[in-house]
Amino acid sequence: MTSPSGADRPAPAEAGGRRGRKPAPISATAGLSHRAWLEPVRNRVRSSGLTLDELVHRSGYSKTRISELLRGNGYYPAWEITFSVIRALGLPVPPMRRLWTAAAREAHKEQGWIDHCIEQVACAPEPPPLAHQAFTEAMRAPYTAYARAFLLAEDRVRWAVGETFDLLWLSWSTAASSENLRRNAWRLLRSRVLARAAHRDGRPDLRAAVFSTEEVSESVPGRLVVMTDLVDLFDAIARLPQDQMDVVVLGHLCGLGLEETIPYVTGLSPAITHAVDHHARAALEDLLRRTGSRE
After folding, report:
1. Is residue 168 within 8 Å of residue 129, measured between CB atoms?
2. Interacting residues of 197 by C-beta distance below 8 A, sequence separation 6+
3. Which of 98, 189, 232, 256 gets the most CB atoms within 10 Å of its CB?
């Protein structure tokens, strides 16, 4: 098999035109990484206007197997059938292969099985769009800093950031034409990071990030007192509304500038960023005051 050519790509459905029937819900047994690639594939099926019968004809697999793949039902699908579906849908191969591989590991597939599956499909090189490359280079450092505040482990940090960029590549034509690419991309990153973060009382747990701060270094006098205060502060940060939490994490934990960098990274206007920061500081003071009054 070879990578899809332009002739294989389905024409986009025109506004008001026929669209494929919505697939059955994703199986509850599908893991987080499995859902990461399955959701954009299902979205592409709906937007392409292809019926299940047409997708079956283009992919060369039975309706039962394609239906199971689209639902994330049964055994984790081999790369060959997954590739046949994304080829029929005109989706880029490299990001999909990385997402599929991560989900295969999540499904406890052995590396030998993964390698064998990939070797069955020959793919020509397929570089990402230049604009996507530029976006990735600009956002990798701040995205990584944000992810590290919640995930700590470097392998999980790299995966959350890489997954974000791969998902953006899968839908780049749509994402790049949106009114605020940086805002939509930031929300995607946040969703991938928080989905993998530890949680406490329904909120992301930032307390472990205290130990990565300079304030609790062993050389700092009174570090235990400082640590206790920081644990309370980080716990309060995690209780803020999402935009406020983001601005505080990027500014206080990641060291990004409020004037230009944070608005650029999050896609918020400078005026809104300042307003969010102002409300966040007031909310933190209130939360910390209430925490202190209970002690």
Report:
1. no
2. 150, 151, 204, 205
3. 189
Q: Is residue 140 within 8 Å of 266, Cβ to Cβ?
A: no
Q: Rounded to whole angstroms, how far apart are CA atoms 277 and 271?
A: 10
